[in-house]
Amino acid sequence: MAITEREVRVRFAPSPTGPLHIGGVRTALYNYLFARQNGGKMILRIEDTDSHRFVPGAEDYINEALAWLGIGIDEGVREGGPYGPYKQSERRDIYREHVKMLLDAGKAYIAFDTPEELEAKRNETANFQYDASTRLQMRNSLTLPADEVQRLIDSGEQYVVRFRIEPGRDVAVDDLIRGRVTIKSDILDDKVLYKSADDLPTYHLANIVDDHLMKISHVIRGEEWLPSAPLHVLLYEAFGWADTAPSFVHLPLLLKPDGKGKLSKRDGDRLGFPVFPLEWHDPKSGETSSGYRESGYLPQAVVNFLALLGWNPGDDTELMSMDELISRFSLDHCSKSGAKFAFEKGKWFNHEYLQEIPDAELAGLFKPVLSAHGVNPADFSDEYIAKSVGLVKSRINFVNDLWDNAKFFFVAPTEYEAKSVKKRWSAEMPAIMTALAALLEAQPDFTGSVIEPVVMQWIADNGYHLGNVMNAFRLTVVGECKGPHMFDITDVLGKAETLDRIRAGVERIRPVE
Ligand code: GLU
What is the number of other CB atoms lying within 10 angstroms of the CB of residue 354? Predict the structure, then answer.
């Protein structure tokens, strides 16, 4: 059956060895986009066969992160499905049976070499590799008589099962992004597929068996797995599954924002951005690592940002919702070369998505921030909070930034920025501001658009300097010379509060020499 006629079934197969790295999130996202676009299925398989690297909490973290980002799973540990269990540690019988298939077919063999024996061999032979050129010098089922092999197993000696790789072959990996990559089988070693010590397969065997049994059509994963692909091709062949082997797609690496090399957690610490979707508390070290969610990113922004790290839509469109990404995604536009992790662009996306949030909703997100700064949101109407955030949201990248930009709507200034005072608060300002307060007090309609022309006219009639007067006015109301349009501010604050602030300013601000 041609690949294109096959039902699309992809999997995200993380190992629960710690928090999901942002590169892993991108892999999950591309799998999801590809599955949804093709009406296929997205499978989440937990690859926990490396018992030494298992970290409690990592699996829950993976589920929570994918759910937060809106990356839906069709089959998995939580969702169930027809090809479960979806956690490898629960599939031991399946792997045992498949190891036996390879042993019976002579495609694998049992090896008893202890770590010490292997170490000795490595010291004795430069660049020692366990392969066709050396395997007959080792302690395994190819060199020991069958009854001795059985005796050793029965006596409880630990062993591994190794894949018997024949030299002199060209192994071709067809990758939908990279094309055909061919290597010589001679460079591969007889990989360990199973360890009796923990009765578990290694990553390679479990991964191949599961991809086959779960009817995976496309293996979409990070470039770091490309070196394993030839071995995987040979395993499919050894099992007799070459015809239904999945297509490979190896995604480009995520690179440091400011140089060459793979993005690492240290880059995030050094340059101040998270490399994990959610905050992570390391159960062993007690260390906390920051997450996109806790840093104030919206999931839509993270998704959009990651989607463009290694793929482009073919034109310069940048803002795309999940649905748009699903319809536009294509492997043809995935790049081979690594993608620089331009985290500043991530902030830009967050800014853009924040603009799309209705003011009332943004007000809801701002309430906890207000409380955190000692302002009781219940002291203000929802409408007041919504109007305030609406006036400043074009200036923010994160919800938390709302405080710095909108705090004056909630707390009257008690201090006045010295630089602006020096520049704008000349000796005649107290009198001018007192007159302005009187003028405003006399206005029956305090709507911003109504009082604005009145104030403009008054400034002109008196021959005042527009910039000086308006900035002094702003200084009394805001405490500094920044913020949205002055008459939008007074509109929200209302007459009484505006007059109080002007008069308090006149009382408190002292000209600076
Ligand atoms: N368990 C591997 C990982 O942690 C899966 C690699 C693959 O997708 O084949 O990424």
Answer: 24
Task: Give per-residue pLDDT as tens, 198-213.
Answer: 999 999 999 999 999 9
Predicted confidence at residue 4, as pLDDT, reads 57
pLDDT band for position 216 (cuts 50, 70, 90): very high
Asked if residue 41 has its Cβ within 6 Å of ligand 1, the reply is: no
Sort residue 80 into left (φ over 0), alpha (ψ -120 to 50) or beta: left
* 14 pocket-lining for ligand 1 (C-beta < 6 Å): yes
Structure confidence by residue, pLDDT tens digits, 96-129: 999 999 999 999 999 999 999 999 999 999 999 9
pLDDT at 260: 85
Nearest by Cα to 252 from 244, 262, 264: 262
Q: Is 13 in the pocket of ligand 1 (CB under 6 A)?
A: yes
In this predicted structure, the answer to whether residue 5 has a pLDDT above a threshold of 90 is: no
Residues marked active site are found at 265
Q: Per the structure block, which two tokens stand in for 264?
A: 């690492």
The total number of residues shown for the chain amounts to: 513
* Nearest CA-CA partner of 241 in 222, 264, 213, 266: 213
Give percent of the chain above pLDDT 90: 96
Pocket test for ligand 1, best of 9, 15, 175, 251 (most atoms within 8 A of CB): 15
Write down the residue that tokens 């929570």 correspond to.
64
From the alpha carbon of 15, which atom of ligand 1 is closest?
4
Segment 41-54, tens digit of pLDDT: 999 999 999 878 88
Q: Could you tell me the distance, in angstroms and rounded to a whole number, from the CA of residue 470 to the centre of ligand 1?
A: 61
Residue 107 near residue 222 (C-beta atoms within 8 A): no
Residue 164 DSSP code: -
pLDDT of residue 259: 81
| Phi, then psi, of 174 in degrees rounded to 5 | -95, 115
State the distance from the centre of ligand 1 to the C-alpha of 133, rounded, in angstroms.
Answer: 30
Evaluate the omega torsion of the peptide bond into residue 85 and state whether it is cis, within 30 degrees of 0: yes
CA of 151 to the centre of ligand 1 (A): 36
Q: Which atom of ligand 1 is nearest to the CA of 228?
A: 9
Distance 219 CA to ligand 1 centre (A): 10
CA-CA distance, 506 to 489, in Å (whole number)? Answer: 19
Q: Which residue in 27, 62, 28, 29 sits closest to 48, CA to CA?
A: 62
The minimum-distance atom of ligand 1 relative to the CA of 211 is 9
